Amino acid sequence: AIDSILAQTGVSGIEVIVVDDASSDDTPHALETYRDRIVSCLLPVNTGGPAEPRNAGLRLARGEFIAILDADDVMLPGKLGEQCALLRQHPDIPLVFTNFRNFSAEGPAPQAFLADHPRFHAVDWEPLGESWYRLPAERVFETLLVDNFVGTSGVVMRRSLVEEIGCFDVELRCGEDLDYWIRISRRH
Question: Which of 66, 54, 77 is nearest to 174 (CA)?
Fold first, then answer.
């Protein structure tokens, strides 16, 4: 995961923040090779869900744009550059997300994640360029109520959005990401 972030092109000054949720997998030792290229945060106890570690990372982040990447995911080359370019060209858009492909030791899934989300494909997309689209907030809100089509590791959002919406709900042990996207779609 870290290597795929550090290999991103089209962006400069990437700040990598690794939040260790008091894991038992010797994460501090694994991070030694990245010592000068990352910010590391060790939570005192395992919080039992992804919300608090994500919030810790949001609080530490200093950049204009914030991306989330779970430890078992990788970013494809150019992902951050493409998403940051869209956000720079469209300052009224607070969040962008990408499609992605699940993978395992056996290889990638046969189809991309969004192929399994027909409700997402029924949303009216406004073209913003060759491969960029704007989704209307009202339709996104309605669709998210029944189908979470936003993959957390595919998201890049503005710091100003985090300041407006707040953090992930730590009371939720799962679905905290869906709750966050719904809160955002009610306003944007």
Answer: 54
Q: Which helix (H) or strand (E) holds 161?
A: helix 159-165
Q: Would you call 65 helix, strand, or coil by DSSP?
A: strand
Q: For 21-58, how does the pLDDT look when each residue is reduced to its tens digit (9 = 90+)? A: 998 888 889 999 998 999 999 999 998 899 999 999 99
Which DSSP helix (H) or strand (E) runs through 67?
strand 65-67
Q: What pLDDT does residue 90 have?
A: 96
Write down how long the chain is. 188
Distances in Å between the alpha carbon of 116 and those of 75, 97, 100?
A: 21, 16, 12
CB of 19 within 8 A of CB of 70?
no
Report pLDDT digits (tens) over 58-107. 999 999 999 999 999 999 999 999 999 999 999 999 999 999 988 888 88
Residue type, 168: F
- Whole-angstrom Cα Rg for the chain: 17
C-alpha distance from residue 185 to each of 12, 60, 120, 138, 140 (Å):
29, 24, 14, 7, 6
Is the entire prediction scored with pTM above 0.90? yes
CA gap 44, 19 in Å, rounded:
11
Lookup result for tokens 């089509």: 149
